[in-house]
């Protein structure tokens, strides 16, 4: 259906052509309006009313411009981009249509607004390119525009690239359009990621543009970085400059890192272990939620990053442990805690200053943070830890900058510097003069209103102002006959008329000139202050990062002291020994002392594969998870939940725990299990820790048992990785007879009458059976099912066969009566039964009872 293009709609469509892939927020007065398809998408995502323009039927919806950030955040979370189109001053040649232009394109990966960002999470934009040369792999650059952090690395394989992108968890991925046939592998990989991908076309982006932008900003880094890495970093930089803006003094030069410098904890393992998020995606219930008692947002982000990237360098691990140990017994309240709270999110505040997007209130927060930095630095000086001293040395309070802010800004400035009353009285004589004139003019208006009421005898007469018509005199229609001759009609309303006079026009000119001049001058002074602050953005950011690192260390110390964690011993050996280890997350939800601790002793030479059997609900999965979490916590730099722990450096922790499917990829639960198992068997070293839970359970019993047995054999014969292998197949315990480095463990169980008691204790012996039917009974299955299951199990275990030679499971439902029950004893045992009946057990001594039992047993053997 053709739409008649009014001048406004024509202007909208012209602007929209420049951002076809973004939701256009088109400023109309006090609202950002969306039209056409944008309106339909916006109404659905934002849950707001979809309406239409009366004249042309164009779909329409809108949000208030002064509270647009929550709506923008919702659109970004849904994967959309948002283009902000602001209105300017009316053109004298076309006063009915204001000029409009796009001032900002906001994408999920280029967000700097505090209200839109998640405080405890980083907000990375990732750029990816295929590296030049056969087998060169891929280059990756990650940029967080809200903090200026810029990282870059190179990976050889597509699988490693996918894992690294998942570990970074970007909000958006950017790639440059490749020549036909050159982006197949990369394109397929990116489609599989749950993240918005933006492909830059050749018209809006070129390699030359990117290289020029990168060289202009980071000349030294451009010369030092490998060509492929520099190209990925240049793509990220150019995209940010084209969307966020070029005034980005806070961006640091890309820091090159190697994936091999950190423990490998892949995406599946992070999900299984719930390191930074629980299975439902929330922080609660994760390891991070237990360890995070930080007082700053930068500290929370730092700690999350440490958990995602556990260390492999012994010196760095020991330095964190030394710092935690010193803080363990220190007073972490008082000045330390108060200073950290006052500092707040200094890192993102510095980012807004570096991008010239800070508000006057942001600047006052900066001044307070800089003062708090000074007291924090002083308090940190009392510690001897080299790491804490290094962090303290990086903190720069800058009292002169704090004083400049306090001297420039009023005590309670507005959020928007264009609203006036930003500059402190006494700073500028010109500001004070204009402010006096503007405020005095308002008194003149009030006096004029009183004079005109007296002159016209119209008590309801009002002198008012609005942005469109300026100052006017409003008279209600019943009083129009009293209007003097010198009143000039300005506007007609339903119930009133608005007028002006020559005197009012002159007064309006003076007032508006004074007010606009005052706001413009205040904005100029504030902008100069912001420029001065911007020149210190890099120093402020370095301070913020040092504060965040100290806050993270302090959090680890607080948690360790409160929860009774101990310092682990990390060395270059291969053995992992834990005494009385506990699961940090589960323990936190229990009463003190309720969690049952367990030991671990694993090493490649004699105890490589620990085969753990036992029933469901006994705690096998919990035991596996707690071992992995203790290893990761130790190399993060944290103390661990145990009585004692000695850990040889671990290069990777990999898990296969739990069942899930990938229906969107057409993969069943068993296919996912086998795919994950196959992936885990690659690249294992003697320093690897592999945790396998119920391999083979997704298929038939014999198939599953065969697969589990073969996998265990392979791990023993072909690798030296430390393996915890939990299984229900207690037949696998026979492996310990054939393979010397396989040891049998089990979850202790006690039977009390008909009850099964799970002791949650790991013992050094195999499980005799799986107790599956007992668990089913505890779960509440009907007694008839439990009874029948026991009958079938007995038939299977005793090898009872039917006429066809198959295990006897099916019953003949046509039979009118059940098959006869075999007697418990044969006829030749009747004499033994008679003797048993004759025994008076209550009058027998224990020795007499044992003798009688031995006599009867001997007679049965003779008869047998």
- DSSP strand count: 26
What would the CATH topology of the largest domain be? Rossmann fold
Most strands sheet: 6 strands, mixed
Give me the side-by-side strand order of the main sheet.
3-4-2-1-5-6
CATH architecture of the largest domain: 3-Layer(aba) Sandwich
**CA(first)-CA(last) distance:** 98 Å
Unreliable runs: 661-666, 812-825
Q: Structural class given helices, strands, pairing?
A: alpha/beta
Shape: elongated
> What is the CATH superfamily of the largest domain?
P-loop containing nucleotide triphosphate hydrolases
Describe the structure.
The protein is of the alpha/beta class. It has six domains: 7-106, DNA repair protein MutS, domain I (MutS, DNA mismatch repair protein, domain I, 3-Layer(aba) Sandwich); 125-261, MutS, connector domain (Nucleotidyltransferase, domain 5), CATH 3.30.420.110; 292-398 and 536-563, MutS, DNA mismatch repair protein, Chain A, domain 3 (Orthogonal Bundle), CATH 1.10.1420; 429-530, MutS, DNA mismatch repair protein, Chain A, domain 3; 569-778, P-loop containing nucleotide triphosphate hydrolases (Rossmann fold), CATH 3.40.50; 827-863. Helices cover 43% and strands 17% of the residues. Strands 3-4-2-1-5-6 form a six-stranded mixed sheet, sandwiched between helices. Strands 11-10-7-8-9-12 form a six-stranded mixed sheet, with helices on both faces. Strand 1 (22-28) and strand 2 (31-35) form a beta hairpin. Helix 11 (297-308) crosses helix 20 and helix 15 (360-380) runs antiparallel to helix 16. It starts with 6 loop residues before the first helix and ends with a helix.
């Amino acid at each position: 259906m053709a739409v008649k293009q009014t001048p406004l709609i024509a202007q909208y469509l012209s602007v929209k052509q420049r951002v076809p892939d973004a939701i256009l927020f088109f400023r109309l007065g006090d609202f950002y309006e969306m039209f056409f398809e944008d309106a339909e998408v916006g109404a659905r995502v934002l849950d707001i009313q979809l309406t239409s323009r009366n004249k042309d039927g164009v779909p329409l919806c809108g949000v208030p411009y002064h509270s647009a950030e929550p709506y923008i955040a919702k659109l970004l979370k849904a994967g959309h981009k948002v283009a902000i189109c602001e209105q300017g001053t009316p053109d004298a040649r076309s006063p009915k249509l204001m000029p409009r232009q796009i001032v900002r394109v906001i994408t999920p990966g280029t967000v700097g607004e505090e209200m839109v960002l998640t405080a405890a999470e980083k907000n990375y934009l990732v750029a990816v390119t295929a590296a030049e040369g056969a087998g060169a792999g891929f280059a990756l650059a990650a940029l967080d525009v809200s903090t200026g952090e810029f990282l870059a690395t190179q990976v050889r394989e597509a699988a490693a690239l996918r894992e690294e992108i998942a570990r970074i968890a970007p909000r958006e991925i950017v790639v440059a359009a490749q020549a036909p046939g050159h982006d197949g592998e990369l394109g397929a990989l990116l489609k599989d990621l749950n993240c918005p991908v933006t492909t830059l076309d050749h018209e809006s982006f070129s390699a030359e543009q990117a290289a020029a932008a990168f060289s202009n900003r980071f000349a030294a880094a451009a010369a030092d970085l490998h060509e492929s890495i520099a190209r990925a970093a240049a793509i990220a930089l150019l995209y940010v400059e084209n969307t966020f803006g070029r005034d980005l003094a806070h961006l640091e030069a890309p820091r090159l890192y190697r994936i091999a410098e950190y423990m490998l904890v892949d995406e599946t393992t992070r999900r299984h272990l719930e390191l930074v998020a629980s299975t439902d995606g929330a922080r609660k219930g994760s390891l991070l939620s237990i360890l995070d008692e930080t007082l700053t947002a930068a500290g929370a982000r730092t700690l999350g990053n440490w958990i995602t990237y556990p260390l492999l360098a012994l010196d760095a691990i020991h330095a964190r442990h030394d710092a935690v140990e010193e803080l363990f017994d220190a007073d972490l309240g008082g000045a330390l805690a108060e200073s950290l709270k006052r500092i707040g999110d200094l890192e993102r505040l510095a980012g807004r200053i570096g991008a010239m997007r800070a508000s006057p209130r942001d600047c006052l927060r900066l001044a307070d943070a800089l003062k708090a930095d000074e007291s924090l630095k002083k308090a940190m000086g009392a510690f001897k830890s080299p790491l804490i001293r290094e962090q303290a040395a990086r903190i720069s309070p800058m009292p002169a900058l704090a004083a400049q802010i306090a001297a420039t800004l009023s005590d309670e400035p507005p959020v928007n510097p264009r609203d006036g009353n930003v500059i402190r009285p006494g700073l500028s004589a010109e500001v004070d003069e204009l402010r006096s004139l503007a405020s005095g003019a308002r008194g003149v208006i009030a006096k004029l209103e009183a004079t005109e009421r007296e002159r016209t005898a119209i008590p309801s007469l009002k002198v008012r102002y609005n942005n469109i018509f300026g100052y006017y005199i409003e008279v209600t229609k019943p009083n129009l006959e009293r209007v003097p001759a010198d009143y000039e009609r300005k506007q007609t309303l339903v119930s009133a008329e608005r007028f002006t006079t020559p005197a009012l026009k002159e007064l309006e000119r003076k007032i508006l000139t004074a007010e606009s001049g005052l706001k413009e001058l205040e904005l100029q002074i504030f902008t100069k202050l912001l420029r001065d602050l911007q020149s210190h953005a890099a120093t402020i950011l370095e301070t913020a990062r040092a504060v965040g690192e100290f806050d993270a260390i302090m959090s680890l110390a607080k948690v360790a002291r409160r929860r009774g964690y101990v310092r682990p011993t990390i060395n270059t050996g291969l053995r992992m020994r834990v005494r009385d280890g506990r699961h940090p997350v589960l323990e936190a939800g229990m009463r003190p002392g309720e969690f049952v601790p367990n030991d671990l002793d694993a090493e490649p030479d004699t105890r490589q594969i620990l085969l753990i059997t036992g029933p469901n609900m006994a705690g096998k999965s919990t035991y596996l998870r707690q071992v992995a979490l203790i290893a990761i916590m130790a190399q993060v730099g944290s103390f661990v939940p145990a009585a004692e722990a000695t850990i040889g450096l671990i290069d990777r922790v990999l898990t296969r725990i739990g069942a899930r499917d990938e229906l969107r990829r057409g993969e069943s639960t068993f296919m996912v299990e086998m795919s994950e198992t196959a992936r885990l068997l690659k690249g294992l070293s003697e320093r690897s820790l592999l945790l396998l839970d119920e391999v083979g359970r997704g298929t038939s019993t014999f198939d599953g048992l065969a697969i589990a047995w073969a996998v265990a054999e392979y791990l023993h014969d072909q690798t030296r990785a430390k393996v915890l292998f939990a299984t229900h197949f207690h037949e696998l315990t026979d492996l310990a007879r054939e393979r010397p480095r396989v040891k049998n463990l089990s979850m202790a169980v006690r039977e009390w009458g008909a009850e099964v008691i799970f002791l949650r204790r790991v013992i050094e012996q195999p499980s005799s059976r799986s107790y599956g039917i007992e668990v089913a009974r505890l779960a509440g299955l009907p007694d008839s099912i439990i009874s029948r299951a026991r009958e079938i199990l007995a038939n299977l275990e005793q090898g009872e066969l039917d006429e066809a030679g198959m295990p006897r499971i099916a019953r003949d439902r046509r039979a009118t009566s059940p098959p006869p029950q075999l007697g418990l004893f044969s006829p030749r045992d009747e004499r033994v039964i008679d003797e048993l009946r004759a025994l008076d057990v209550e009058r027998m001594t224990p020795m007499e009872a044992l003798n009688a039992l031995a006599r009867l047993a001997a007679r049965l053997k003779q008869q047998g």
